[in-house]
Amino acid sequence: MRKKVVVSLAVALAYLGSLTSSAMAADAVKSDLKVLLSGKAADFSDHAYLVDNSLYAPYELIAKAVGAEAKWDAMTKTLTLSKDGNTIQLTADTAEQKVNGLAVVTGTPLQVINGNAYVPVRLVYETFGNQISYDSQIRTVSLATYAQPGFKVFGVGEQQYVTGSELRASVVTLNQSLKDYTQNKEPKKGEGHIHAALDADPLGESALQITKGEPVIFKNLKPGEHTLNVQLVGNDHKAIQPEVKQAIKFRSVGASILTDLDPEKGTGMRIEGVTGDKQGRLYTIDMDSKQLFRIAPETGKAEVLTVLPRSATGMVFDSKGNLYMASGGGQGVDGVVLRVPAKALEGGAFDSSLVETFVSGTNGANGLVFDASGNLYVSGGATGNVYVVKPNGESKVWASGIAAERKEQLITVNGLDFGKDGLLYIANTSSGEIHRVKVNADGSFGKVERVAKDPLLYGADGIMFGPDGDLYVCANERNAIVKVTINGKVTEVAANDNKGILEFPASLHFVGNTLYISNFDVQRGANNPNAPGIGASIVKLELGGK
Questions:
Q1: What is the pLDDT of residue 474?
Q2: Which helix H or strand E contains 368, and what residues bound it?
Q3: pLDDT value, residue 140
């Protein structure tokens, strides 16, 4: 049954630093850290706790230290801290805080310890614009106040992605009280408000004027690059001196379901591969019924072309328009690569007898990619192998030596693609890594090199280089799409929980600046349980141009 789909961007804010990790269900231990406030011992040092290596202290003492008013609701276990017209709200055991009304992901929720509310010190201090550092050699936390007027922007950061047509951000002023300029017209030091503009001058007529702590909302964003311009002004709307302003470049991503392949059910059908032909038409396979689908990208209409002789996953076209499909085998059944001749795809439905076995002996076959010479590379999943198949069907095996990191997930060689540098890039699902290797002129392989390893790559599956030259990755167990530069920089493009538009994304395919993604919908990781979602479907992400 089709469910309501909620799209969200998992924006990981850089609060946490060297002290922090998830604190959702950890034990609190008395802190042995030394805490300095402006060079002197902090009042709360003797009352602090550590939860998963994050420093926590009683909310009353932290509120006093940052100069905020505190309100604790014991019934809802919610704390509200207010300062200069700004508020942050923390609730026990909730993996987000609200900053001026905007929900922001955090790995350090408020804790109730021995019946008292304790707040994460780093999060509160940095939200209100103060500085914090940690010296691991002497186990000392140093806190310093920020004395100059300023602001912090939450909800969007430099070069981040925003999913959907709406930007929701929040601006916290520092050492500058938010005032309603209609009631406070005369310039006064320490008072003012915020001007915010999208792709425009923050002092121009189109700028939003923010006089109280609430989200800043821009609607009808088109996919592509944008700049959020924010500036601190006085009651007279003139820029304070010296000027305090920030220009944040980000990219908006349009997100939708192109087609729901099983509209009667939210779970059940399994599709893993997705690819496209030269006409831009998309193809995928139902692994259980073995039906091969062709999908029109303009309408999302799907037609069944044939029933394959066996189940298949990864898919790719060669330069002549022949379609290849990986079938990994298992339990005494050899892995093979199937092929549909280009001629069979010229019309509509065709007989399954036209489906050929191109090569056998490719156990664990999953990801597929061609090199410039027409050689087919086949990933071997948990075998760690890459099979290289010449156009005439001759094959050889390269044992990559790439190791598994998780016993419950042994797939080490999954998605494959060639970069513009000519290197073969490999997704390691087990460890959340991207590797690359040089394929020499004689067909031998060089030394495997790690490009990136990052928590954002957990469950790295299908990969493909985009038109911008960066590698896009399905992080299946996170319900996420992640971008990796050839220099190893990792950026979240889109992510959601098990109620969102991505449901265990497995493969992806670019048509221009539009990215199509197959929802495998396995009940694992962020997609567990999988019942709330839409099920087997193709997602459309419009990345837009520059």
A1: 98
A2: strand 368-370
A3: 95
Position 4 scores a pLDDT of: 37
Query: How big is the CA angle at 147 (ends 96 and 97), to the nearest 5 degrees?
Result: 5
Q: Alpha carbon of 19 to those of 50, 107, 122: distances in Å?
A: 9, 11, 9
Structure tokens, 499: 């109620």
What is the distance between the alpha carbons of residues 202 and 272, in angstroms, rounded to a whole number? 46
User: Is the bond preceding 529 in cis, omega lying within 30 degrees of 0?
Assistant: yes
Q: Which pTM does this prediction carry?
A: 0.84
Residue 17's pLDDT is 33
Q: What is the largest CA-CA distance in the chain?
A: 83
The encoded tokens of residue 301 equal 């209409």
The amino acid at residue 185 is K
Task: Kindly give the pairing relationship between strand 224-233 and strand 245-260.
Answer: antiparallel
For tokens 């936390």, name the residue: 141
- Please state, as a whole number, how many other Cβ atoms lie within 10 Å of the Cβ of residue 435: 22
d(C-alpha 2, C-alpha 330), whole Å: 33
Residue 516 near residue 540, CB atoms below 8 Å: yes
Q: Report phi then psi at 315, rounded to 5.
A: -140, 150
pLDDT tens per residue, range 248-257: 999 999 999 9
Query: Which residue in this structure is represented by tokens 């500058």?
Result: 176
Long-range (24+ apart) CB contacts under 8 A made by 439-443 are 439/371, 443/388, 443/396
Q: What is the pLDDT of residue 42?
A: 92
Query: What is the per-residue pLDDT for 268?
Result: 78
The vertex-85 CA angle with 80 and 89, nearest 5°, equals 20
Low-confidence ranges of the chain (pLDDT < 50): 1-25
Taking the C-alpha atoms of residue 198 and residue 218, their distance in angstroms, rounded to an integer, is 8
The three-state DSSP-derived secondary structure of 124-171 is HHHHCCCEEEEECCCCEEEEECCCCCEEEEECCCCCCEEECCCEEEEE
* Cα distances (Å, whole numbers) of residue 136 to 53, 139, 141: 12, 5, 9
Are residues 71 and 157 in contact, defined by beta-carbon separation less than 8 angstroms?
Answer: no
Residue 332: predicted pLDDT: 73
Buried b (16+ CB within 10 A) or exposed e, 273-310: bbbbeeeebbbbbbbeebbbbbbebeebebeebbebee
Phi, psi of 346 (to 5 degrees): -70, -30
Distance CA 443, CA 398 (A): 10
